[in-house]
Design a protein that fits this description.
Elements: E1 15-20, E2 23-27, E3 32-33, E4 43-48, E5 51-56, H1 67-72
Antiparallel strand pairs: 1-2, 2-3, 4-5
């Protein structure tokens, strides 16, 4: 595999491909640049059971479990 740290002269022919600026790659007839720009951190702090929890909104997902059916239902 040929890994190059810098782009080639073909960079001038690169054009965006994707539905939005945040979700696109740069492509040309001979090359595709799939590297995205780093996302700036968006920290937020929450108070939870006596501890402060800090998460990065730019890199955090939340999973919501159906608590009523999963834990309270007799067959849950």
């Amino acid at each position: 595999m040929n890994v190059a740290a810098n782009h080639s002269k073909d960079d001038k022919a690169l054009r965006p491909l994707g539905s939005s600026e945040r979700n696109q790659w740069m492509v040309s007839e001979t090359c595709a640049d799939l590297v995205r720009q780093p996302v700036p951190p968006r920290p937020i702090s929450l108070q939870a059971h006596g501890k402060r929890l800090t998460v990065d909104l730019a890199r955090t997902a939340m999973i919501v479990v159906d608590m009523q059916n999963d834990f309270c239902h007799p067959e849950g």
